[in-house]
Amino acid sequence: MSAAPPSPLPLVFDAPATKTPPRHLADLDPADRKAVAQELGLPGFRVDQLARHYFGRLDADVEEMTDLPAAAREQLGTLLPPLVTSVREQVCDDGQTRKTLWKGHDGTLAEMVLMGYPDRATVCISSQAGCGMACPFCATGQGGLDRNLSTAEIVDQVRQAARAARDGALGPDRRLSNIVFMGMGEPLANYKRVVAALRRITEPAPNGFGISARGITVSTVGLVPAIDRLAQEGLPVTLAISLHTPDDELRDTLVPVNNRWKVGEVLDAGRRYAMTTGRRVSIEYALIRDVNDQPWRADLLGKVLRQRIGTKRVHVNLIPLNPTPGSEWDASPKPVEREFVRRVEAAGVSCTVRDTRGQEIDAACGQLAAASREK
C-alpha cells in the first residue's frame, strides 16, 4: 500500500523583505559599470580592469590587483564587498565532492556543491536562501523561504567554485565547465536575478566568465509563465523540470505548485521550451519507495512524455532519494529502480539514474544549512 504523503506547507512565491546586499560588481551590466565609474570619478576602463580581474582571473581582492593605482584600488574595492563567505565545508568521494555552507552579508545561510567527474567539473549553486515551494520530501522545502539571493551572490558562488577547481581542489588541471541551478531555492521564482546571473556567467570577460550556456542547467518545479519567458531570453541553457510523478493526484501533494499548473501544462511548456531553444528538456524524478515508484507510474510517465514533448526532445533523470534525518521518505530498492528505467525506456524515452554523490556528508540540499541552524 502506498505511503500517504504529509500535507505540504503553503506555497511562498515572494521572498520576505530583507536588507539588500551591498552593491557588487557582478550586479552591474556594462552600462551600469560606466555609470558607476562616473559616480566614483574614475575613467571607465578602470572598472573594466576590475571586471577582468574578477571574471577573467577570478580574483576578488583589490590589493592583489597591482596594475591598478593604489587610489583607484581603494575606490574600486567598494564594488567587491564580501558577499559569500564560507563557514563550513564537507568533503567526500575521495575529494571529488566538496559541499560548502556559506553565509551572506545578513547571516543568511545557503549551500553550493563542487563535484569532479572524469570529463567535467560541475558546481551546483543556490538561487534562494531556503525555498517556498514546500515539496515535503526536500530538506530545503521543509525549512521554508528566507529570501532571494542577489545576482552577485549567485555569480560569486560560480567564481569561488571556478577558482577552487583551477587551484586544484578537485585535482590538477581542472576547469569549471558545468553549472546546475539545483541547490537551494526555485530559480524561476527569483527570475530577474537568475537571468542576470546567467548572462554574467555566459558572456566573455570582462562582462562574464565565458562559460558555455550548453553547460548550464536551470531546474524548476514548473512555473509555466517563467518557463515560457526563459525560452525567449536567447540563453540556450538546459531546462530541468522537477516532475517526480506523472499524475496530478499525487503531484498536487508532492509538488504543491501543481495545484496552480497541472502536469499537462508543465510538460506543454517544456515542449515549447525545447522547440524554441533546440535544447532537450530533462525530467527530474526523485524515486521514493512506495510513493511514486510503481510500475504503472513508469508506464504513464513514458506515455505522457512521448505525447506531450516527444521522445527526441526529452530525457528522464531518475534521482535515488537521499533521505533527510527523521524523514519518513526513503529511496526505492534497486530492483524497483531498474524496472522503472526499463518501463520508461520501453516507451521510447531515454532514462538514466543520477550518479549519487555525498551520501555521508549531509548531501541532500538544505541538510547542511538546517544542521547549522540547529546548533
UniProtKB/TrEMBL annotation:
<feature type="binding site">
    <location>
        <position position="322"/>
    </location>
    <ligand>
        <name>S-adenosyl-L-methionine</name>
    </ligand>
</feature>
<keyword id="KW-0489">Methyltransferase</keyword>
<keyword id="KW-0004">4Fe-4S</keyword>
<feature type="binding site">
    <location>
        <position position="131"/>
    </location>
    <ligand>
        <name>[4Fe-4S] cluster</name>
    </ligand>
</feature>
<dbReference type="InterPro" id="IPR004383">
    <property type="entry name" value="rRNA_lsu_MTrfase_RlmN/Cfr"/>
</dbReference>
<dbReference type="InterPro" id="IPR013785">
    <property type="entry name" value="Aldolase_TIM"/>
</dbReference>
<comment type="function">
    <text>Specifically methylates position 2 of adenine 2503 in 23S rRNA and position 2 of adenine 37 in tRNAs.</text>
</comment>
<keyword id="KW-0698">rRNA processing</keyword>
<keyword id="KW-0479">Metal-binding</keyword>
<protein>
    <recommendedName>
        <fullName>Probable dual-specificity RNA methyltransferase RlmN</fullName>
        <ecNumber>2.1.1.192</ecNumber>
    </recommendedName>
</protein>
<feature type="binding site">
    <location>
        <begin position="185"/>
        <end position="186"/>
    </location>
    <ligand>
        <name>S-adenosyl-L-methionine</name>
    </ligand>
</feature>
<feature type="binding site">
    <location>
        <position position="138"/>
    </location>
    <ligand>
        <name>[4Fe-4S] cluster</name>
    </ligand>
</feature>
<dbReference type="InterPro" id="IPR007197">
    <property type="entry name" value="rSAM"/>
</dbReference>
<dbReference type="InterPro" id="IPR040072">
    <property type="entry name" value="Methyltransferase_A"/>
</dbReference>
<keyword id="KW-0963">Cytoplasm</keyword>
<feature type="active site" description="Proton acceptor">
    <location>
        <position position="111"/>
    </location>
</feature>
<keyword id="KW-0411">Iron-sulfur</keyword>
<feature type="binding site">
    <location>
        <position position="219"/>
    </location>
    <ligand>
        <name>S-adenosyl-L-methionine</name>
    </ligand>
</feature>
<keyword id="KW-1015">Disulfide bond</keyword>
<feature type="active site" description="S-methylcysteine intermediate">
    <location>
        <position position="365"/>
    </location>
</feature>
<feature type="binding site">
    <location>
        <begin position="242"/>
        <end position="244"/>
    </location>
    <ligand>
        <name>S-adenosyl-L-methionine</name>
    </ligand>
</feature>
<feature type="binding site">
    <location>
        <position position="135"/>
    </location>
    <ligand>
        <name>[4Fe-4S] cluster</name>
    </ligand>
</feature>
<feature type="domain" description="Radical SAM core">
    <location>
        <begin position="117"/>
        <end position="360"/>
    </location>
</feature>
<keyword id="KW-0949">S-adenosyl-L-methionine</keyword>
<dbReference type="InterPro" id="IPR027492">
    <property type="entry name" value="RNA_MTrfase_RlmN"/>
</dbReference>
<keyword id="KW-0808">Transferase</keyword>
<keyword id="KW-0408">Iron</keyword>
<keyword id="KW-0819">tRNA processing</keyword>
<comment type="similarity">
    <text>Belongs to the radical SAM superfamily. RlmN family.</text>
</comment>
<dbReference type="Pfam" id="PF04055">
    <property type="entry name" value="Radical_SAM"/>
</dbReference>
<dbReference type="InterPro" id="IPR058240">
    <property type="entry name" value="rSAM_sf"/>
</dbReference>
